[in-house]
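### Sample
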Amino acid sequence: MDKLAIISDIHGNIPALESVLADIKARGITRIICLGDIAGKGPDSDIAVDMIKENCEIVVKGNWDYFMTECDDNKTILWHRKKLGQDRLDYLRSLPMYAEFFMSGRLVRLCHAAPDDVFHRVQFAADYEEKNTLFKDPKGGNNRADVIGYGDIHEAYMDSFEGKTIFNAGSVGNPLEIIQASYAVIEGEYGKKENLALSISLVRVPYDIGKAIKLAVKSKMPGLESYIKELKTAEYRGKL
């Protein structure tokens, strides 16, 4: 059987990314797909982009990756853009919105937030109808996915819909549920349209949060206090 690791929302947190990549390697998984938000929030967007380019077979665009290339009137974004440099910005701009393939007879479609919109946020607590919209064909046809995987909300979960499956890979670098990095593993027959066994699992990986905080402090990045609080508590800075 083939194994795919699905990672998302790195947000420039290198200690978290290193720990997740080490765990993936220890499991013997060699194919990695990234669901975006490589850059922003954390201090090392440039290193994160380089590591994702080196290690990931497929990468799709996240909302923060979009901000990096399209927003030029925000001080926080401009700080990260300066670190990224033009070549990395061009790479982020070139990323596709989604990836899809057959695995064990299921059409798997992977995206950051929704296949046709990096800003279409579907929370864990969303109702059936809202989650069900993610299965639609982004090209407007009838090619509905059997499995949808996404990132964006920094909260890993899995759910089923009348034989279809939806999962969120959570966040590598900015988890907002527990203070451990998370990613997903899909196991099955890659590229096969024959209906065979398929499994999806969610993995939690502890990492050196203290080191991540030291790197953030050293960088003098914007939004430092909010970022540190999120790493320490897994509580979203915008939560009332």
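The chain has one domain: 2-233. This sample (Metallophosphoesterase family protein) is used throughout the tutorial notebook.
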